[in-house]
Amino acid sequence: MATNSQAPPKNTTDVNAKVSQNSFGLATPEATPAVEDGRIAADKERMAAAMRQLLEPSSSSSAETREQVTDAADNNANDEIDVEIKRIMHCFDSSYAEILGVNPNSPEKEVVAAWRHLGCMLHPKFVKHPNVEAAFKKLRTAARKMGLDDLDIDEVMYWDGEEQFDASEPDTAMDEDAIPIPPQRVTNVYGEATPLLYRLGQDPSDPVLLGQLYRLNAKITTANRAENIEENQWTIPGAAFFGPHYNEAGQRYEMLRNDPANEKVKSEIMKEKTLIDSFIERNHFPKQWTILTPDEYLKRDSDATRSGIKDKAQAAAKASAAAVDAHALAKTYLQSITETKDKLEGLDDATVARVEEAEQAIIAEVANALAAREMAKASAEKASLASTIQEATEALEAAEAAYTTAAEATKAANLAMDEALSLVDAAESAANSSQNSIEYPWTTTLAADGSLIVGVRKHGATGTQILTTTSLSKVLGRSSAAAEIRRVCERDGIQPPSEAGWVSHYYDPSKVEKDPVRRRALRDSQAITPSDDHLGRQRQSPGASSKAESRMVQQLQDKVENLENEMKDRVENLENQMKDMKDMTIKMDQNMATLMGMFKEFMRTSATTS
Asked: Does the pTM exceed 0.90?
């Protein structure tokens, strides 16, 4: 440090802390003769005497003499540092003027000079002493309590250890050539650091950003060493300077946004800008690292607000249009289910009931979509009339929520419609299948025209169609018809007609006849009926009959069991569907309650606004 009060050589700092010209390019404060004139004069006289004594032994200016002079000056400076630390530590914490060595009524210029003089002398970054940090902290507190602002405090806090202040003018800028203009390699690194510094202002302690800045500074220091340049020259003080000051300015900007007419906040922002601009200019940092003036910030904030409101209003309008489309789509589902009801005639009652339930569900969802559409329209209109970002944001959120409700209602209506259409299609398919299928209640009796009856099916409401072996042979051919008849007979556990006997062999009508005369006639008729070779047919043995009956009984039991399982599955499906319908109804009630609350809130807000 060099001042007008004392002039130790420049390598004094090398002895104490091997000081380098780093990137904190703040000016070195100097004392004024007005501060403790007697003490400073005595220091001058003592230093001059020491210099004369060291220079007297030889006038040859040898290297040995110059080293002695340097050592003596260093020792003298260290003695002064020890004296000042002891003096400050013996002062009461509240004796601010005594700590700075000024009178309590001293003008601000003298307080600034004393803070610069003592602050640079006892700067803990460059002085190694057990109590230097405590003494420096007391000095800083005293300077602040004596009325110095952040600009005056920070210029010493971020002092680089070598640069000088003009003692007669505390605010006079230092020599601009103290730090060389950085080369292109350094400006390239500055370009990489620009976005990191802006983000660091939001969180000066962000470890990720600090790590990235450290790596960028490493590029500078590595190249500096290779070129024999001071290692820390041109490095970026992100955590020590830009981060804290950007953060401080950001807090002031937020206060200014809430109170644009606050002159005190504007003044504080300008102080921060002055300090940052001075720091940038002295260290040749990029000019875009500065901050905005209060007027520039307010203008940009106003422009951003208008742009943001416009964007949110447009987004709300899109959400409203989407809600309108969703409601229109839900109405088409209702129209489809209404047209489907015309096909319910002739279907079973369960299917008709399910379709009617689906129709009611779709009507409810269409109503939900309609309410959501109206809410979205109202929110979009509110967003277009908003005067603040917050109002526009709230309106946009309401419009998007309404669209979501409309879309969910439309989706639920679509599911209900699909389910109803599936039920109708399944019922129609089952009806058509039952009408078109051919069942084979085999018999060995003859039709009136002598043909053998092999199957029947319903025809219309009251008619019956009879399928005979003759007609089946005409359709499939004799061989194919015989094979099909045999396949069905084996499936049903009975003998094919070509192998079966007469019905009278298995069925005795005389046992159910009540008239005794007819019963006797029937019994006599059956007794004289040929059995072994009638029409070349073989009589079916009792063993074959019992096996066929057993197979038929087993098949009937299997069919009953399958039918029971099918009915059980249908009941379970019906219960699940009823549960789903209940959940859907609960959700619909909740949505309606939410929409009604939003609508009431909107009506209340509209009434208040009007």
From this structure: no
